[in-house]
Amino acid sequence: MDLSALSSGLDTIWVVLTAAMILLMEGGFALLEAGFVRQKNAVSIIMKVFVDITFGALIFYFIGFGLMYGKDAFGLIGTSGFMMGGDLTHIKLSISNDTYWLFQCAFVIAVISIVSGAVAERIHFHAYILYTIAMTGLIYPIAGHWVWSIGGWLGSLGMIDFAGSAVIHAMGGFSALAAAMFIGPRIGKFSENGTPNIVPPSNLPLASVGAFILWFGWFGFNSGSTLSATNGSIGHIAVTTMLAAAAGGATCILFTLFRYRKADPPMVINGSLAGLVSITAGCAFVSDGAAIFIGAVSGIAMVFATEYLDSQKVDDPVGAFAVHGVSGSIGTLAVGLFAKPELTESIGQSYSGLFYGGGWSLLGVQALGLVIVSIWGFALTWLSLKLINRLVPVRVSRDEELVGLDVGIHGVPAYSQDHDFIELNQLKKS
User: Which residues contact 365 (CB under 8 A, 6 or more apart)?
Assistant: First the structure.
């Protein structure tokens, strides 16, 4: 075996393993969201995650991958690669196109899972399936083409988004915001005078385990984006990922102790996730110190964003917008400030952030790209839900919401006792 074949084999193993790590993050999303919502809606969370994985993978195979990574047309969309067919010779990697598809499929599943949390406890299951098709087949792939594909117009301008703070998290976060605003708050979330009521999470230990699984998977998310087992930046990427997450969580512990006189567990959980989200764009291109700063700022910003949404009577049960939309935005812009030229050489070009003598150019491109993909996600999500609502109701009925989606929509509770057997069968018969 020659060195080229050996390197290709190692790269294939690396990408498949990191893709599996990213897919494991769906278990993290499931536990995190199930822990944050009320007990009566835990099954509905699990079912939505299965929709993400099953429908998401199939639609991305049939449509999404081609629109995202197919042969470029005018910098806007891909025109080949549907069902992995057609001309894909422009993708020049050491791994096969099948391996590349698997890795990208894991990404698209993560995007739709961001929106899932923002509409928890009140979206109709049928509507969610249709929206998943729209997100994985159209909304995300087109935004991704603009930034990541060969010929995409934002990428051609020089936008840098190594593993997706903008394409995945900011776009997904603003999509989540649009969905939460469209569907409206949960019954009882806000008083008549507009003040928010606390909806206690059902299981914070479960949510924390979900966060730890997401944290673990993020090493695959970021380090795996090298697409090469022999890339020398893998270790640095893992370190910046760890430091940003730690800084986000630690800052939230201290900040909530100061602000509320108690360390707030949901905020601390989301603070670590905010750090992970914010470092995703620049994990390969910023220093360790910058990673700590980016994570810390994101942790604090997440708290303020959560409070602001409450003040505007926008109900986001798991903090999807605060974690992904706000932190993704911070991380995207941070590349324009902290990118080190010697680190960006790993992508074949030397970019310098504002603090490294690069001027305003890179920051301007990052800001432009961020605004474009965020507006795209928000607008297309709003439009998709409006169209879906003409076919099936986007929101469950009042009775279904009050009894809980687990029994009202799926016909089974998450946690049951033996005496529930008769009641459940009577309910199904009725």
Answer: 154, 157, 158, 159, 336
